[in-house]
Amino acid sequence: MKKQIMLFTSKTCASCKTFKPIVEEIVNSYSGVLELQVYDVEEYPSLVSAWQIRTVPALVAGGITHTGPMGKSDTSRWLHDMGVL
Q: Of 10, 32, 47, 79, which is least packed with CB atoms within 10 Å of its CB?
């Protein structure tokens, strides 16, 4: 069973546009293990409310939310620390 991670973004968020490809690259390298769900905060307000997303980009893994962009190694480390990798 693949582990789910969620990425909350916005079309108007510059850092989202740089962070999303990093997350996608990591997920693609673990295609048998991870599954990424990407949500635009303007299109999914009920999910934003349910996960209490206040800032984008927001990455959710293992029930924990990290806000703000990270580099590839920091993102991989965080996913590992969350028990996803």
A: 32
